[in-house]
Amino acid sequence: MTTPPALLIAGHGTRDEGGADALRALVRLLGERHPEVPVAGGFFGVPASPLPLDDAIDGLVGEGANRLAVIPLLTAPTGPVPEALPQVLERAGERHPGLGHVCGTELGPHPKLLDVLERRLDEALGSGARRPADRARTTVLLVGRGAADPYANAEVVRAARLLWEGRGFAGVETAFVTQAAPDVPAGLDRCRALAAAAGTGGSARVVVLPYFLFAGGPVERLWMQAEGWAAAHPDTEVYAAQVIGPEAEVADVVMERYRAAVAGASCGCRAAAEDARPAHGAPRESASLAAGTGER
């Protein structure tokens, strides 16, 4: 019986221990649900992470893995980062000659992730989300990390549209913590203006929804900005939703991406490359598992 490729979960860099704990919880969940697949995870993109991706790779190789299916644990592409995923994998190939890999795609606005986001909205609103009329006067501000790459930011806008469709909210606007406009205060300004234009009656109500898998520095900045804006606009009800977290739905999407990558249906490390998109917009090709040589 052929041993399946190991699953390597590549999170975008964090120095936050809470984010590292959440990734460890996701790895445990996947290991419990799919004991036939070796699995490990770590972070790339920033130095001094408490859970480096290099260590995760070395651990899988130490357990006998010679093929990796790498799934970027991202809701949207990162755009340029100081150390991109292909660089980490190239370095791993130098440390472990013969190590093969294939990259899957980021998680994106998968329907299961949208379901978790909707659950986070209901949790934030509590009893205020029980009737259609309550949702109809609620605007959502979906906040992404932000990147220099417009394609990465466009994925957040796409997620907002998909979240809005058929869920009864007055609207779903977007904002970004860094590098892209609008920022959180400007996004809240827009939500307030839209609520006033809609004339639904009563005070405007906005839920700030992080489009992040795990908590960490950017999410803390997001909440601080939202709290500051809310203090300056007491006529608007502002609710803070939680991050997606290591939910069962996330594990399901990771495994879906894993199976697609192993079957050769992935489109490469588009999400995690250092602006890897060539001028004509095509993604880089990923390595073949069948070759097992680690060639890029």
From TrEMBL:
UniProt keywords, alphabetically: Lyase, Metal-binding
Lyase keyword on record: yes
GO MF assignments: lyase activity; metal ion binding
Domain of life, per lineage: Bacteria
Region Disordered: start-end pairs: 275-296
SUPFAM superfamilies registered for this protein in UniProt: Chelatase
Listed InterPro entries: CbiX-like, Sirohydro_Cobaltochel/CbiX
Keyword Cell cycle tagged: no
Family annotation (PANTHER family): SIROHYDROCHLORIN FERROCHELATASE, CHLOROPLASTIC
Name of the molecule in the record: Cobalamin biosynthesis protein CbiX
